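Recall that a protein's primary structure is simply its ordered list of amino acids. Everything else, from secondary elements to tertiary packing, is in principle encoded there. The following example makes that idea concrete.
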Amino acid sequence: MKKTIAIAAILFLSCGKNSDHHAITVPDVIQANNTRGNIAGLILLYDEDGKALADRSGVTVSIDNSTVNTKTSMDGKFQLDSIPAGTYDISYAKEGFGTGKIMGLYHEAANHATTLIKKSESMAVNSTLAINNIVVQAFEPAIQQLGTNGLHIVPVFDNTTGQEKWVHLFFSDNNNVSSSDYKAEYKVKCSGAANQFNNYNMTTSWFESIGFSKGQTVYVKAYGDSFLADSYTDPIANQTIFPSLSNKPSAAVSFVIPAK
């Protein structure tokens, strides 16, 4: 019995010594522990007309190229816990709201300090606007005689509220024009009425400034959009993303840029 107890005591001491050995904190471990901290921020939600939403919960916030993520609370706040020091791209998304990016966030994390993202991020509900048509009409002769030539480009849609809506126009030199295949883009606020020509004047010189030529055939497609300027460039695809566009765009419409 005494022999057994002696062996057990030796094993206990060995395990204890071994555990103590691994519990010693070496300098690089200290440094690693001191360079972790939280990342915190705020995301605001809006409807497509710009009214702030009280419930800002359920936005998934993720660190790109990792499995780290969290969700916003009712007030829109989020916190990513115990993140090592570094520079990160952060994505956020919610169904019905599209996506957003925080690019190149430097997280020092010295002595467990929290990196607070000072500027709040904003997301709007994806536009539900269905664009029925685009009316294109040349400037009236009286305007042309003053030395200015160009086109009125008017998105047409049903507008039961009477409140002006944001519409995004995409221009290309081919009929496959879309929000991902375009040469130039322009965002306008309009009523949807087909006869509001004076509000949407695009001169020949403006078309030339965005890369087109006099006499060239151009194609345009219109999408409903939110009030936010929320586009960003996806660093992997190297493509500009427009998160709030409606999935009910117009058909592509062609026109010729006035030659004079």
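The chain has a mean pLDDT of 85. The chain has two domains: 29-124, 131-256.
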